[in-house]
Amino acid sequence: KQEVTQIPAALSVPEGENLVLNCSFTDSAIYNLQWFRQDPGKGLTSLLLIQSSQREQTSGRLNASLDKSSGRSTLYIAASQPGDSATYLCAVTGIKAAGNKLTFGGGTRVLVKP
Amino acid sequence: DGGITQSPKYLFRKEGQNVTLSCEQNLNHDAMYWYRQDPGQGLRLIYYSQIVNDFQKGDIAEGYSVSREKKESFPLTVTSAQKNPTAFYLCASSQQGSNYGYTFGSGTRLTVV
Fold it and tell me: Would you call the peptide bond into B8 cis, given omega within 30 degrees of 0 as the criterion?
């Protein structure tokens, strides 16, 4: 059974520092991995989607890497801002999962202090 | 603008009542999903549908029911059999196939009163 873990559960950094968020998964047989952002009481906003054949994806200040063989992904957020404060979730679509369903990690809650 | 609309944002249920959460998408996506989010437990799949008139149970389907009569709509009913329904409910959709990501709605917070 696929398990997705995000460590740490919470992170606090001063404004301007780079953020590094980690995600690990137990079964490397995945179609893709997706990073989401969730603000309190809100839905999930998709940040980046990495296909299993890709090593990384970039969007603005965000860069996500994928190492499928070791079961790891890292989300980098450059020059963090207070507006980056949110919970970040990673999720994988497993090849063995029926219906292409997502398996989520528990999330990392980020606070960027001004 | 294409997206997923969930309504209502807040819903209160009395003991023994059935309530229905609405989810509508205009993205022309084939697949739709319902997830439940509880503090400290992450997101868990309740039901999913890959095509109209067909749906499958997820990991925590007991006490819930769904229908998929139209491609755009995937309502979730929380029945009285669901003993602990207080949670945040999220609807999502995706294009069929493994190359596509998910789009999520803004959620419905259900509280038992």
Answer: yes
Q: Determine the Cα–Cα distance for residues B10 and B14; give it in Å rounded to an integer.
A: 14
- Interchain contact, A34 vs B56, CB within 8 Å: no
CA of A104, closest CA in chain B: separation in Å? 6
- Return d(Cα B113, Cα B108) in angstroms, integer: 16
B70: burial class by Cβ within 10 Å (0-12, 13-18, 19+)?
Answer: exposed
Helix, coil or strand: residue A100: helix
- Name the band, by pLDDT with cuts 50, 70 and 90, for residue A97: confident
Smallest Cα distance from A94 to chain B, Å: 9
Do the beta carbons of residue A28 and residue A68 sit within 8 Å? yes
Q: Give the percent of chain A with pLDDT over 90.
A: 89
Give me the residues of B, 80-109, that contact A with CB < 8 A. 88, 90, 92, 94, 97-107, 109
pLDDT digits (tens, 9 = 90+) for A33-84: 999 999 999 999 999 999 999 999 999 999 999 999 999 999 999 999 999 9
Whether B31 has its CB under 8 Å from any CB of chain A: the answer is yes
Q: How far apart are CA B105 and CA B113, in angstroms?
A: 24
CB contact under 8 A, B45 and A101: yes
Distance (Å) from the alpha carbon of B67 to chain A's nearest alpha carbon: 16
